[in-house]
């Protein structure tokens, strides 16, 4: 599967942004999907993940209640709606896919990655 992330940009603190991830291939509905982010000088960290059907969702504590992950298997897309953004949310955001069942917070368990989209939150 090939992934293309988009929707990043510059937003003021407290604002909202919606990221999208478009996937190629006919088997998108079988992949567990996730969003990760990497800030300058930091390791890539887990943001959110959801199961192939979308019925199981997991969020990092730092974004729980603020970010919403979703997917549309008919359109081969995934989204991350981000609200109440903070400066510490500034990072490159990556979408990722794994072919094994079960959600995961470990970036090493995802075999497929998009190119990343920059999110910058200004104060």
β-sheet strand percentage? over 45%
Indicate the structural class.
Answer: mainly beta
- Average residue pLDDT: 96
Order of helices and strands: EEEEEEEEEEE
The strand count comes to: 11
Largest sheet: 7 strands, mixed
Outline type: globular
Radius of gyration: 13 Å
Extract low-pLDDT stretches: none
Straight-line N-to-C gap: 37 Å
Number of helices: 0
Amount of helix:
under 10%
Structure description:
With about 120 residues, this protein is mainly β. The mean pLDDT is about 95. Strands 2, 4, 5, 6, 9, 10 and 11 form a seven-stranded mixed sheet that branches. Strands 1-3-8-7 form a four-stranded antiparallel sheet, with no helix packed on it. It is about 0% helix and about 50% strand. It has no helices and eleven strands. The chain starts with a strand and ends with a strand. The protein has strands at about 5, 10, 15-25, 30-40, 45-50, 55-60, 65-70, 75-80, 90-100, 110-115, 115-120.
């Amino acid at each position: 599967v090939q992934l293309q992330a988009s929707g990043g940009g510059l937003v003021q603190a407290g604002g909202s942004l919606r990221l999208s991830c478009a996937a190629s291939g006919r088997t998108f509905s079988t992949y567990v999907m996730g969003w990760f982010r990497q800030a300058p000088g930091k390791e890539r960290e887990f943001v959110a993940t959801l199961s192939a059907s979308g019925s199981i969702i997991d969020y990092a504590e730092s974004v729980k209640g603020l970010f919403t992950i979703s997917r549309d298997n008919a359109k081969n897309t995934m989204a991350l709606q981000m609200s109440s953004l903070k400066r510490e949310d500034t990072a490159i955001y990556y979408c990722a896919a794994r072919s094994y069942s079960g959600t995961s917070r470990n970036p090493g368990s995802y075999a497929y990655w998009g190119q990343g989209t920059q999110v910058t939150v200004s104060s």
